[in-house]
UniProtKB/TrEMBL annotation:
Keywords: Hydrolase. Residues 353-437 form the DUF7586 domain. Gene3D superfamilies: DD-peptidase/beta-lactamase superfamily. Coiled coil: none annotated. GO terms for molecular function: hydrolase activity. Signal peptide: none annotated. This is Serine hydrolase. Transmembrane segments: none annotated. It comes from Streptomyces tirandamycinicus. Residues 25-336 form the Beta-lactamase-related domain. It comes from the Bacteria.
Length: 460
C-alpha cells in the first residue's frame, strides 16, 4: 500500500507549478522557487526562471532575510530549556550595558519590548555591518519608542540583542551556536551566513520597465541574527518539518508549540495576524499558518506551515519587490490541502483503561450548562460544552492526580476530581468552578448551596 505522504497527485503537482509560474511572471522575478512539505518531508518543488539556461532548484541558495529571526528564537528557547535563562528575565541579567536592560527576553522574542524597528542611518540592509561595530551603534540614541509590553512593534534591533544574548550566554559567536545546535542536527547543510554555490544573485526590477539592477549583498555584522542567512527550499523544508513536529536534538514538541502560540497583541485592524515567540501567525482562507516572511534588497522569502494539516510551503525569489511570497506560500498550502485532504489516523482503542478514570467520563453540569468529559490517550481528558458553544479545553494528566488545561479558556488551569471522605465522587473542580452530575446537584457541593425547594414552576 502506498502511503498518502509519499507523493502528490499529478494534478496537484501541476497546480502547484502553475501557481509558481504565475507568481514569477506576474511578480516579474528573475527566478522563483516553491516547495511543499507534507508528512515531515519534501514532497514537491518547482521553479521558474527568466532564462532557460539557469533554472534554480530546491538546492539553490537564496537570501531569506527575516526568516533568520525564527532560527535565532529557537536558539533562545534552547537556552531556556537548558535552564540557563528564563523568558521573563530582564535582558540586563544576561547581557549588561545595552541601555535597554529592563526589557524581558520574551518581549524581545515577540517584538513587544518597545524598541525601534531599525538601526540609525545609513540603511542597514544595504550597508556593511562594520559601520555598526557595537550595540550602541545598532540601538542609537533613542532605542525605545513605546512602553515595554504594551504593543507589538516589529524590531530588527531587538533580534540583534537576542543574537548578542545567545553569544554572551554560550560564550561563542551566534553563527557558531547556530551551526552546532540547529543547522547540523537538522541536516541543513545548505544554510549559511555567506552565500555558497549554487546561489541566486539579488536583483531590483524597475517598477515601470522590464529592466533590472544588481543589489549588493552585505555582511550585516551584529545584525546578522535579524536577517543574515542564505538557505534553500530543501533546507527550509527540513526547518518547516521541525517547526511542525519538534526534534529533541534541537527543541522538543512542547517548546515548538509554545513558539507557535500568540504572545503579542495584534495591531488594530490586523486581527488576522499576530506574533508568537519568533514566529508570525496568520489566518488565510480559514486556516491558521505559522512561519515567517523575509526580505533583503534583492530577495524575498516566506515559509508557512499549517500545523493542523501537517503541510508547509516555502517560496524564494531573487527580486527586491514584486513577487508576494507570503501570498504564494499560503496558496501552495491551500492547493495541497484542498486537493488532497489529510488522511486521519486510524481509530484505535486505548491499550489500557483505568476504571477510575472511566468513571469520570460522561455528562457534567456547570450550573445549568451541560458539558461532556471524554477520556483520551495517556490519561488525558477533554471537556467541551454539549451545545457546541462555550468554554472547553483539553487536559493533560499530572503526576499528582490532577489535570492541567492545555488550551482554550482553561489553559493552565487545574482540573481535579473531588471525593467525599467515603471515597464517593462528589464533583469536579476546575479553577474553582464546580461541575456536578446533575444541574445544581444538592449533593454536589455547589458554592452558595442549592434551594431546598428544588426545581419547580415559576410562581405567577
Amino acid at each position: 500500500m502506498i502511503s498518502p505522504h509519499e507523493t502528490l497527485l499529478p494534478s496537484t503537482a501541476r497546480a502547484l507549478l502553475h501557481r509558481v509560474a504565475v507568481a514569477q511572471s506576474e511578480g516579474r522575478a528573475p527566478s522563483l522557487v516553491g516547495a511543499v512539505v507534507r508528512g515531515g518531508r519534501l514532497v514537491w518543488s518547482g521553479a521558474r526562471s527568466c532564462t532557460e539556461d539557469d533554472v534554480p532548484d530546491a538546492d539553490t541558495q537564496y537570501r531569506i532575510g527575516s526568516l533568520t529571526k525564527t532560527f535565532t528564537a529557537v536558539l533562545v528557547l534552547r537556552l531556556r530549556d537548558a535552564g540557563l535563562l528564563d523568558l521573563s528575565d530582564p535582558l540586563d541579567k544576561h547581557l549588561s550595558g545595552t541601555g535597554v536592560g529592563e526589557v524581558t527576553i520574551a518581549q524581545l522574542l515577540c517584538h513587544s519590548a518597545g524598541l525601534a524597528a531599525e538601526s540609525p542611518a545609513p540603511w542597514w540592509e544595504r550597508t556593511p555591518g562594520s559601520l555598526r561595530p557595537g550595540l550602541a551603534d545598532v540601538l542609537g540614541e533613542r532605542p525605545l519608542l513605546h512602553p515595554a509590553g504594551r504593543r507589538h512593534h516589529y524590531s530588527n534591533t531587538g533580534y540583534t540583542l537576542l543574537g548578542s544574548l545567545i553569544a554572551a550566554v554560550r560564550g561563542r559567536p551566534w553563527e557558531e551556536v547556530l551551526r552546532n545546535e540547529l543547522l547540523e542536527p537538522l541536516g541543513m547543510r545548505r544554510t549559511s551566513c555567506a552565500p555558497q554555490v549554487p546561489h541566486a544573485s539579488g536583483w531590483a526590477v524597475h517598477p515601470w520597465a522590464d529592466a533590472v539592477m544588481h543589489e549588493p549583498a552585505v555582511d550585516l555584522g551584529l545584525m546578522a541574527p535579524a536577517g543574515q542567512l542564505w538557505s534553500t527550499a530543501a533546507d527550509l523544508g527540513r526547518f518547516a518539518a521541525f517547526l511542525l513536529q519538534g526534534d529533541e536534538r534541537v527543541l522538543g514538541a512542547d517548546s515548538v508549540r509554545e513558539m507557535r502560540t500568540a504572545s503579542a497583541p495584534s495591531e488594530p485592524g490586523e486581527w488576522d495576524s499576530t506574533y508568537g515567540l519568533g514566529l508570525q501567525i496568520v489566518r488565510r482562507s480559514g486556516r491558521t499558518l505559522i512561519g515567517h516572511t523575509g526580505s533583503l534588497p534583492g530577495f524575498v522569502a516566506c515559509l508557512w506551515a499549517d500545523a493542523e494539516e501537517g503541510v508547509a510551503a516555502v517560496v524564494l525569489a531573487n527580486a527586491t519587490s514584486g513577487p508576494l511570497p507570503a501570498v504564494v506560500a499560503a496558496d501552495l498550502v491551500r492547493i495541497v490541502v484542498d486537493a488532497e485532504p489529510r488522511f486521519p489516523e486510524p481509530w484505535r482503542p486505548m491499550p489500557e483503561v483505568d476504571e477510575a478514570l472511566l468513571n469520570l467520563t460522561g455528562a457534567w453540569y456547570w450550573g445549568t450548562s451541560a458539558f461532556r468529559l471524554k477520556l483520551v490517550a495517556d490519561r488525558g481528558l477533554e471537556l467541551y460544552p454539549l451545545s457546541g458553544h462555550g468554554r472547553g479545553s483539553r487536559f493533560r494528566a499530572r503526576p499528582d492526580g490532577t489535570w492541567a488545561g492545555l488550551d482554550g479558556y482553561f489553559a493552565g488551569e487545574t482540573l481535579r476530581a473531588v471525593h467525599c471522605p467515603e471515597g464517593r465522587l462528589v464533583h469536579l473542580d476546575l479553577g474553582s468552578f464546580v461541575f456536578t452530575r446533575e444541574p445544581y446537584d444538592p449533593a454536589g457541593g455547589v458554592p452558595g448551596g442549592v434551594d431546598d425547594r428544588g426545581w419547580g414552576a415559576l410562581p405567577l
